[in-house]
Specification:
- The chain has helices at about 1-25, 55-60, 75-85, 115-120, 245-260, 290-315, 390-400, 415-420, 490-505, and strands at about 30-35, 65, 70, 125-130, 160, 175, 180, 190, 225, 225-230, 230-235, 265-270, 320-325, 370-375, 380-385, 385-390, 430-435, 440-445, 445-450, 455-460, 465, 470-475.
- It is of the alpha/beta class and about 525 residues long.
- The chain folds into 3 domains: about 25-185 and about 235-425, Alkaline Phosphatase, subunit A (3-Layer(aba) Sandwich), CATH 3.40.720.10; about 190-235, no CATH class; about 430-505, Arylsulfatase, C-terminal domain (2-Layer Sandwich).
- The strands form 6 sheets. A 10-stranded mixed sheet has the order 7-6-5-4-12-1-13-14-2-15, sandwiched between helices. A 4-stranded antiparallel sheet has the order 17-18-19-22, with helices on one face. Strands 3-16 form a two-stranded parallel ribbon.
- Helix 5 (about 245-260) packs parallel to helix 6 (about 290-315).
- The longest helix is centred in the first third of the chain and has 26 residues, at about 1-25.
- It starts with a helix and ends in an 8-residue tail after the last helix.
Amino acid sequence: MKNKILLKTINVLFLLIGGFSASHAQQRPNVIYIYADDLGYGDLSCYGATKLHTPNLDKLAKSGIRFTNAHATSATCTPSRFALMTGKYPWRKTGTGILPGNAALIIPTDKTTLPQVFKRAGYATAIVGKWHLGLGDSVNKNWNGEIKPGPNEVGFDYSFIFPATADRVPTVFLENHRVVASDGNDPIAVDYSKKIGNDPTGKEHPELLKLKSSPGQGHDNTIVNGIGRIGYMSGGYRARWVDEEVSATFLFKVEQFVTDHRQKPFFLYYALTEPHVPRMPATRFKGTSGLGYRGDDILQLDWTIGQLMKTLELNGMTKNTLIIFTSDNGPVLDDGYQDGAVTQLSGHTPWGPMRGGKYSALEAGTRVPFIVNWPAQVKPGVSDALFSQMDILASVAHLLNQKVPNGDAPDSEDHLEALLGKSKQGRSTLIEQGSADPTAIIRGDWKYIKPHPGVALMKDVGIESGNSPAPQLYNLKDDIGEKKNLADAYPDKVKELDQLLKNEISKNTSAIRH
C-alpha cells in the first residue's frame, strides 16, 4: 500500500513538473517574421492607401504596433536580407548587391545569424519563400544533386525556397538541399552569360510571352510559363514552378510547419514573393484590385496573411505568437514587365507621402511598412521610433537571453523595448543604402544625402534616385517628402552629418558589440 501511495505521489510530481515545463516553454513566443517583396509604405490601407483595402494586415496592425519610421537597410532585396540575417550593414561586405540566381552563398556559416539565435534558445527554425542570398560554394553547382551550403547551414532546420527571385532562373523550388521534383534524366543547367539549351527566349520569340517584357531591362531570356526571365536555363521541366501556384505552395508549407510545431517554440522566416515581378497572381485574384497585377498581388498577399492567422487560431497559437510584418525595400511599378502597374495605377501611391522607391536613397527606398503583433505582450498603438530590420537579431537575443559574441552582428542594436512598444526611443543613427553605396544618414530628425554621381531620375523604372552633385539635408519631422533641401541654411549640420557618415563607413566592426 505504501509503495502504491509513493508511486502515485511520484507520478503527481512528474505531472506537476511536466506541466510547469510546458507552461514555461509556452511563455517563450513563437516568432514569425514575414517579409514582403517590394511592398511600399503606401501600399496598405492601414498606412493610408485608399485604392487598395488590406483587411487582414489592417487587423494585424490595429491589434499590434504600426511603426511609422522603420527601415530596411537598403533599397534593394539582397542587401536588406543580408543585413537581416547577419546584423551587419551589407555595404561592409563585397558581393552583397542584387545576386543572380546561380550565385554562391554570401551569408557566413561561422558567424551568429538570426536563425542561430533562435536555435541556441531551443527553437525549431524554418524558412519558407524567397532566399536570394546565394547557394553553394561557387557559381558552378550541380542543380541535380545536393546543393549546399545554404539556409540549413546558416541556422535553419528546414527550408523550402526558391533560389533568387521569380524573374530569375532557375525557376524551381528547393527543399533543404535538393530541387523539388528533379529528374536525373532531365538535368537542370543554368547560365547567366550565354544561352544554353533549346528553350525559346523572350528576345527571339516575343509572340510566346503572356506577360510582355519592358524593353532594356533584361527580362527577355529563357521563357518559363510564358514569361521571359533573367538568365538562361535548360532541363528540369517537371521541376519548374507555375507562377500562379507559387504563393499557394509557400502558404501550404508554412501552414504545415506551424501545425507540426504546436508543442515547441519555433521561428519561421516567411519570405513572400508578392508584389515582386513577374506579378502573376492566382486566377482568383486576377482583376480584383482594378490596379493591374501589382494590385492583385497585394490583395493576394493580404489574403495569405489572413490564412496564416486562421491557422494560428485553429492551433491555439495566436496569443503567444510574435509576428513581425515588413518589406525588404520600397516599391517599384515598372520593373521589367508591362503588367498594368503603371497604366492602371488610378491614383494609388505605393510610396505614400515620400519620394523615391526601390533603388533610391530617398525615404521611400527604405522606409517600409512594419507591423508588430503579439497579443500576450504587445499593446496596440503607433510608434515613430527609428528602427532598423537589422536590429531584430540583437533585440531577439535580448528577448531570449542569448549572448551574441563580440564581432558578430556588429551593427545590430538591441531595441527590444521599442520593438515591443514599451519605449519610444529607437536608434539614434541609421545609414541608408540606395542602389549601391551607403549614401544617406539619419540622425534624429535630420537626414543627410552626400553628393553622389548618377542620374537624378532612373527613367527605366521611373524612380528618383536621390543622386545630386550637391549635398542634401532634410528635416524629416517636418518634411517626410524631402521637398525642401536645407543644406545651404544649415552648413554646420551638413558638415557634422557628412563626417559622421564617413566615420561609420570607415569603422572597423570586427570587435564591436552595441
